[in-house]
Each structure stands twice: as C-alpha cells, then as structure tokens.
Amino acid sequence: MLPFNASLKRKDTADVAARQLQQLIDQQRAQGYEYVRLEEITTCIDGTNGCLGIGAKPSYIVTVSVAIFKK
Prior knowledge:
The chain is α+β, with helices and mostly antiparallel strands. The chain is built from 1 helix and 3 strands. A 3-stranded antiparallel sheet has the order 1-3-2. The N and C termini lie close together (11 Å). The model has no long low-confidence stretch (mean pLDDT 94).
C-alpha cells in the first residue's frame, strides 16, 4: 500500500487526479508491482482537553486514500 493524495488546484478537474494516480501506477509498475485498487482508510483523531478547557480541540475524522499493489 502507498498513500495517494491528489494535489489539485482550484481550477483542476478530475483528469488531473487521474493522471497523478496513473503516474504512481507507472512508477510502481517499473518496479515490478501490479496495481490492484484504490481504497480509503478512515480513522478518528483524538481531541485534546487543553489547559482548563482553554485551547481544547474536538476529535475529528480523517480519510486517507491508499493505492494497493501486488508483486
């Protein structure tokens, strides 16, 4: 598994993300790996209590995309 997060600018379309994924696939193929699929991992980042409640931050959910390859 390798993390994959497309780097897009405001005016970019999905084609830009697709090309970035294809570039990752091509790089891994050159090393003998075969692309399997793109998956998402979702987790919860714990919040903090702060000092006497000052600066406290709530928990939040993060989703990370990973490209799965096999050799």
